Amino acid sequence: MVPMGTPGELWVRGYNVMLGYFNDEEKTREFIRPDGWAKTGDQFVLQEDGYARIVGRMKDVIIRIGDKIFPSEIEEFFETHPDIMEAQVFGVPDPKVGEEICVYLRLREGVTITEQDVIDFCKDKIAHYRIPRYIRFTSEFTRTSTTADTDKEAVYSGIRSLYPIDLTVSLSVCTKEKSMVSRSPISMYKPSYLHRPGAEPLFALTLGQLAQKAAEEWGEKEALVSVYEEQHYTFREVLEEADRLAAGLLQLGLKPGDRLGIWGPNSSDWYISRVAAARAGLIAVQIDPAYQPPELLHALVKVEAKALICAEQFKCSSCYETVQALIPELNKSAEGGTEITSSKLPALKTLIVMSNKQYRGAYRLKDIISSASTEYIKEVNQLQTLIQPDDGCTIQFSSGTTGNPKAVLQSHHAMVNVSYFFTKNLEFDTMDGRFCVVTQFCHGVGTYFGIICSLQFGYTVILPSPIFDAKKSLEAIIRERCTHLIATPSLYVDLINTSQDLNLKVTTLQVAAYAGAPCSQQLALQIK
After folding, report:
1. DSSP 8-class letter at 32
2. What is the residue-averaged pLDDT of the chain?
3. Rounded distance, CA 311 to CA 318, Å?
4. Range 68-174: architecture per CATH
5. Predicted TM-score of the model (pTM)
6. C-alpha distances out from residue 2 to 139, 192, 256, Å
7. In this model, does residue 171 exceed pLDDT 50?
8. Residue 378 is inside which H or E element, if any?
């Protein structure tokens, strides 16, 4: 164990650790030790006062002639330059020094600077070995599938054609054991270990019970406002609609523990489907709407999904046509819902589309809701005493940067309690709050702050658009008088620039938090 104040890999143990990778015991054992410690892969510095910071990923650390260089620190340095909006730093394998530093810079509009200008800016400010050898400029960074953050893998792949060196070497440099284990006597330093039992007891609730509790406590208060759909739901209406959908799903033959895929961008139907899955005891499989056919196929096969609820479209692509490419048998089906038989997806039996249009072999979501019988709605209510907090609740997929995305299984207990303490720590625990959701529901931040935390504390969720749009987000914040916002640093850059370009004044925000990537001090001051 490394001393306090020294970088090492962050290990955690507690209620917030996932149940494991679904249908993947080997990967689960790699991540979670037999004693319950989860190895996060984050380079972490813990201070004696209890504060800490993530300085990078273990696999991202650049090793140059034995020196450990953390990309995030150099990125933060470059973002103090008045003409630089964003920086992305990578280690490029080099036969002489091990790895050299490569930086891609996104400049402010209308600004031109040279590589020499960048080098001059670095001199006397950072150590010479931290000055990048390779400097390139870009007008924009490729974003990850739903624009949550910069896609470093895409940027890195673009470097291959620029430099006549071997870039097939893995960027992962295994230094974990050296950084985690010290040969010094333990009496020489205070180890980087923190244990806090907490002052509040944990909740023994399922997500379905939490939705019912919210309806009982804040029944007629607005729970969800979808600006672009012109839809409004109170907490009572959310529960009633979710219970009808849950009953309809049970009528179709789904049973507690079955996996229900939800695939599409943010919408009121997505929100209701997520709550309905919890009420029916189903494990919601939250699928990135930008998945292409091979990725979607992998996700559905991996979790043995029995049913899929999909949006009508994502951006300009038809979600139904993507599913149709995987299940050509749909072409032989009549218009309307029927049981699916698929050679590629043998477990999948039901397809439901969030649409008013009728598709071959697919049910319409609104028809499933309207068809719910009183008998099955009663069964949904009875299930709430049978579903256990430690049961599986949600499956989300890893980024897939080290192979096919892994299916992360979380329990009701973890999701309910993580959402509670997240919200408290970020000061979002206000019933009067109006929370603008700019990240996708399928990701962790979207799930927690866009759905579960609202059910915990009774604040109103505002959806400005199906996918991130800086202009529409700012307009929604102003129109709906939003008080709270959480986004990735990259999204804040776009929000700030759009606000300045269009002279959109935001005056109601009380809390603006970031997640998903480190945030430079300069950007934090701009957000403020």
Report:
1. B
2. 87
3. 8
4. 2-Layer Sandwich (3.30)
5. 0.79
6. 41, 6, 44
7. no
8. helix 374-383
